[in-house]
Amino acid sequence: MIPNIAGIYGKPPADVVDLPAGAVQFSPLMPGASELGSQAEGTLASMTMLAPPGTLERRYTLAQALRAVAPGGSFVALAPKDQGGTRLRKEMQAFGCTIEEAARRHHRIAICARPDRLTGIDEAITEGGPQLLSDLGLWSQPGVFSWDRIDPGSALLLQHLPAQSGRGADFGCGVGVLARAVLTSPKVAQLTLIDIDRRAIQSAQRNLDDPRLSFRWTDVREPNPDLTALDFVVMNAPFHDAGTEDRGLALNFVKRAAESLRAGGVCWLTANRHLPYEAAMKPLFKRVDLKIETGGYKIYEAHT
Ligand SMILES: C[S@@+](CC[C@H](N)C(=O)[O-])C[C@H]1O[C@@H](n2cnc3c(N)ncnc32)[C@H](O)[C@@H]1O
Fold it and tell me: Does the CB atom of residue 285 touch ligand 1 within 6 A?
């Protein structure tokens, strides 16, 4: 039977391509979305994809999506020209697709019918899939924040973070680098890891096995009514949303931390030096101490 489920990945701009009505969302950056890797082969009628910018991540995602679409189904992939768009045609040709290419509003659009026979799919899925980084002792995946190295801002916080105690949260936990350090304190009773990226949460679950942990694939900006009266929050707050700088996102993280802490709770934050955290934190916390400023990063300890 010909499937009738249309797939969509991310948020393709509506003025660049037609968006299918009622499509199933597959982006790991949209909490609640379905997972391409779990979609049985040939069970989607079509796919419309805003292809991700990183090469390994993009090839992985294209390969998974091509596998999921039924032979003959419509496949439309697009990306801004400077974020992988110019590579789409060749990458999809290498998977066995016959591509028609269009350009619109700084995007390249690659269109094809899903071929009967795909080539090179398994390699792309292995190269872009979850993997154990033996030097870091961590599972990670291309596309996750700083996927194959410890971010310098996080490394700086790890050097200066004292032992925490009580109930806490790691906002934007990534693969669990900060949480791994926090859990070394026996005084930590509970730790909630939150990230908007499903791949980060799945990696963190593989990396950390501890009864004190809980994991949430959700947006920190959404209400988390049970995350109140926390003793501590740690974070390396994001300041990019969909590839563009979004200072509001980082400031939302700070606000959410202040709301989630008990009176006298503490937030440890690592931040890029150029971001104006201090001004945003001062009205929200009783005390804000700049602990370290070096190499383009700042570490703050803020008390409610
Ligand atoms: C700067 S990274 C820090 C990751 C990790 N804590 C570390 O130190 O390596 C910020 C993380 O926040 C996540 N993130 C971005 N926007 C988010 C949101 N609105 N809600 C929850 N997590 C978000 C990203 O997926 C990313 O993993």
Answer: no
Nearest CA to ligand 1 atom 6: 173
> Is pLDDT above 70 for 242?
no
Residue 99: pLDDT above 90?
Answer: yes
Query: According to the CATH classification, is domain 130-303 in 3.30.450.20?
Result: no
Closest by CA position to 88, among listed 49, 118, 115: 49
- pTM, 2 dp: 0.96
Which residue has its alpha carbon closest to ligand 1 atom 11?
172
At CA 220, angle to CA 219 and CA 221, rounded to 5? 90
- Per the CB < 8 A criterion, the answer to whether 184 and 163 are in contact is yes
- Is the CB of 28 inside a 6 Å radius of any atom of ligand 1? no
- The residue contributing the CA closest to ligand 1 atom 3 is 236
**181-201 per-position pLDDT tens digit:** 999 999 999 999 999 999 999
Domain ranges of the chain: 6-127, 130-303
* Residue 275, pLDDT above cutoff 90: no
- Number of neighbours of residue 137 by Cβ within 10 angstroms: 9
CATH architecture group of domain 6-127: 3-Layer(aba) Sandwich (3.40)
Q: Among 136, 156, 196, name the best residue to mutate to test ligand 1's pocket (greatest count of ligand atoms within 8 A of Cβ).
A: 196
